[in-house]
Amino acid sequence: MERITTESGNPLLSGQVPPTFGAIRAEHVRPAVGQVLTAERALIVELAAQGAPSLEWLRSTEKMLERINAVWSPVQHLNSVASSPELRDAHNECLTDVTAFFSELGQNAAIYEKFAQLSGSLLSQPEAELIRQSLRDFRLAGVALPPEAREAYRKCQLELAAKQAEFEQHVMDSNDAFEYHETDRAALSGLPEPDLERARAAAAAKHLEGWLFRLDPPTYQTMLMHADRSELRERYYRAWVTRASEQSPAQWNNHPVIEEILKLRQRSAALLGFRNFAALSLARKMAESEEQVLEFLEDLARRSRRFAQQEFAQLEQFAGRKLEGWDVSYYSEKLRQATLKISDEELRDYFPLPRVLAGLFGLVEQLFGVRITPVTDGTLWHETAQAFRIKRLDGTPVGGLLADFYARPNKRGGAWMDSCVNRSRLGERAQNPVAHLVCNFAPPTGDKPSYITHTDVVTLFHEFGHSLHHLLTEVDYPSLAGINGVAWDAVELPSQFFENYAWRPEVLREITAHRSTGAPIPEDKIETLRSSRTFLSGLAMIRQLEFALFDFRLHARPEPASRDDVQQLLNQVRAEVGVVRVPDFNRFQCSFTHIFAGGYAAGYYSYKWAEVLAADAFSAFEESGAFDAGTADRFRRNILAVGGSRDAMASFVAFRGRPPVLEPLLRQAGIVE
Ligand code: ZN
User: What's the 492 CA to ligand 1 centre distance in angstroms?
Assistant: First the structure.
């Protein structure tokens, strides 16, 4: 086997995994990606020419994917968390090459044939699953099509990848272009002091008087939730829901990009013989049919809508007037304070991030028997990024975690977990998994640590659940290790499951230390916080169902939708399911990156689908005790450790002893008669 030769000076080619992130520059990207793709193309020719395939042959294909991942994963990561115009260009250019490589590989009939030959051999269960998924993915890459259709399909995929990247870029650019400068303190009435402090610092850094605000998610949320002046809330709401629309500068308008994306997806589906993109999407999912997904969503909507309508009526009654889209968070928070006597900001004072992390790590140790400790050497991409190492209690190394917690410019919004290094045991070298954990929390101010809201805590636990899935895997083949190879609609199971712990009194006591007294959160506040979990939960449920139904119906159309069709469908879903009035200028679809830039196309329903699995899985812990070691170990072995090496339903049944049921989720959300 040919190995990549090390080009000195290029950290992406050092052979070190993970690489020294701090040393990677935009100019390293093109040569590294070019070199690795050339070497692996040569290897593919060799692999295709070999005789009857063996397990060694199968391992060679896995090693090849890992070598590409070692170069490409850091580039993708840096483009998300530390973007620059140069890096972005290099990334986008190489994205085309990488996509081309994989579409060529996916259409390589000789390699496909070798996998097909292997499927008859005596294999272990993970190996059989690897072959099954590989054959499916080859077919979905068009390998079985006649040459002309195959070529058309390949081109279609390339264009699609480029269009999706463009969609996301437009959203990022619209975000970054927004600035709100204010010199009148009265206009900012209601905003929490830490946000004002940061805005003052941002203004000072630009030699401006007053306060300077951006459009990052925490700022947007704080404005909508706390700004007393309705005009300010409206200004932020408008900016947020019109990003990358016809109301933005023309070069960022995503309407035509959406049309292109839908056209390309429909064409891809048709070429592969599916009646629409939704059917194609389901080929890789746990859900069995379009009807099953739509019934599931519509059933949940029917059960929740009445609760949401009651909640909204209660909210309008409380406000004493009709509410607009930009009023809902604000009055929800006010109602929450009035009825639950709990304020988001008051609670923020209880959650210094270092304390939350210490409590979280303690919990993980208790449940799964692994210890997480900080690593101080090595340079990452930003001075505030942190590395951790994970070991079993007997000292056996398990993996690593690279965490990037704070919001800043040139960093993609939201929170996510991503694979940095996959676990593999393929002979020569045992490789342990490393996870990226990325959040956008308010950064520390001066020498004070970051204080996060309880919502942030839940987000952190969510992403940590994904990280545990990635890190506690025991699968030896990287393509099936951790979250890899797990059906999209089941992949949120561990993350949503783990959120439950952010609501447990035992955990809340461990992760809190008040800003001035250092005391843990008092019992009465724990009780109130817990009852807040179902506060306005019908509205939250309906909001997610709106997104999910819009996404699924959009992709289940037999014909691609025009800009007007998209708007009409969205309006229709809102009229049917929605509860909150949406203003005419709202162009939410133009920044719906989950489905137009991410992997959630005809798959947004997965969040709710997996919530059912997660709530039902956690109900096993409610029966046995939330910290029961035996149940935790069964969860680890049956769900986390097996990753994608087994069918998601089989894993669930192995853990729960039966297929999933809806009741625990409805109970958890308080949506029960
Ligand atoms: Zn998630």
Answer: 5
